[in-house]
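REVIEWER CHECKLIST
Item 1: Sequence provided? yes
Item 2: Single chain? yes
Item 3: Sequence as submitted:
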Amino acid sequence: MGGIADLPQPVVRLIQSVVNAEFATMTADGVPIDTPLFAFPAEDLSTIDMATGLAYPAKANRVRRNPKVGVLIEGVLPGEPTISIAGMAAVRDADIQGNALRYLAETGHYAHLEADLWPEQQKAIWYWMRIIMVIAPKQILWWDDPAALESAPHRWDAPADTEFPVSDPLPPTSPQPAPKWSQPPWTQLAQGTLR
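Item 4: Structure as written out by the authors:
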């Protein structure tokens, strides 16, 4: 069984050129959380990498707790595939400076297309400090185009001897717990919305 680069060219091209993808992780309570993120695949397609801010590490904390993640990549042009990836993720936070440089190189040109904004964005050090999450695909399902979503997907499975990445060692300090906000019952929110 070949690697990801051996998949059909429309699938490979979309993975290589993806800008935004949906990234799904699980909370400690087993609730899936889906977040749209910039995606930047490794050159050899061994991993599809994403990042979260050093100031808001919840996604990385969830990956450390449960490395099983999902990635959804949807083509936007006619005839582009829809790709669902079940992967094993690892956290890269041992070299934050290196992560910042990589994140800026991979995504900075998307976020800052207007040149007059760049001088201000250069000052946003807190934004560029990133924790990178590398996702090694374990299984890839894809449909040739959105019209094919009603039929069975094509499937690729990682070879049985695949070694999945392992997270960097935990930082020496414990992460701050996520804030707990009171949440009214959904029926109360719905009534307010209907009013």
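Item 5: Key structural point noted by reviewer: The CA atoms of residues 44 and 131 lie 21 Å apart.
Item 6: Recommendation: ____
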